Amino acid sequence: MFVGVDWGGTKIEAIALGDGGATLARHRVDTPRSDYAGCLRAIVALVERIEADTGPCPRVGVGLPGSLDPRTGIAKGASSTWMNGRPAEDDLRAALGREVRTSNDADCFAVSEAVDGAGAGHRVVFAVILGTGAGAGIAIDGRAHHGPNNGAGEWGHNPLPLPDVTEIPGTACYCGKHGCLETWVSGRGFARDYRRHAEVDLAEPVQLGAPQIVARMRDGDRLARLVWQRYVDRVARGLSLVLNVLDPDVFVMGGGMSNVDELYVDLPPALARYAFSPVLHTPVVRAAHGDSSGVRGAAWLWPETL
Predict the structure, then answer these.
(1) Range of the domain at 91
(2) Dist. CA 43–CA 65, nearest whole Å
(3) Inter-CA distances, 46 with 21, 49, 289, 302, Å
(4) What would the pLDDT profile of 129-160 be if each residue is shown by its tens digit?
(5) Between vectors from CA 50 to CA 46 and to CA 52, what angle results, nearest 5°?
């Protein structure tokens, strides 16, 4: 049995997987935002609930909304900014009283999909998260690729390629820069772009999330369609850099925006327009395990075969 925890910015989830990958137990709670100690307590309580269902587990894998400095073990680059500067893995080990392995949540997502998800059978998997934020993980031969700085796959914190004058300097990002891909291609970025244009046209505040805007697009709303087309174009520009540099075997899409069916029709031809190669054979596919992929990948941090 393998136990994994996904320490997310909005929810914390724990899962127990059997040796064959079957889900034995699963629980989640809302993240105690801006409360580092509260997050640790929530993780301990979730693992205790898992063990009450399945029995004791001596080792736990945890997906983090950031990464650790490989030399000091101090958390860095976390979208849950209250984690930054903390020895997260050491604190988890002390709180849980057992061995713990951690990895970036996008890396966990990539491993999950590479092992027994939409990327299974592909050697190099680039797994993209288009959710509250935007990130990515790289799995090679079923294992996460980290790099010497433990920063591989941080796709969302590169600048938007080929910006036009309306996209410069871009929105401020929590990382301290402006115009990061995350500010454009996350679900929040999509909704913010719609609101910006709608409020100009309607001269009144518009409070719609991404699902409502997509619904308007499907109902024939012209502005929603235009904003969607701009969104797809920005995702394509961002992924074209990955294609040109890494040329992965598959793009696996996760996060809330990955649930928009039109993405898989509209994105490939847009990506082909920006790619250097005159041919594009790389499939763009939806994650097989949905929003469970991250927590499943955290559980897979311990099997020595991966």
Answers:
(1) 2-110+291-299
(2) 14
(3) 19, 5, 21, 18
(4) 998 889 999 999 999 999 999 999 999 999 99
(5) 115
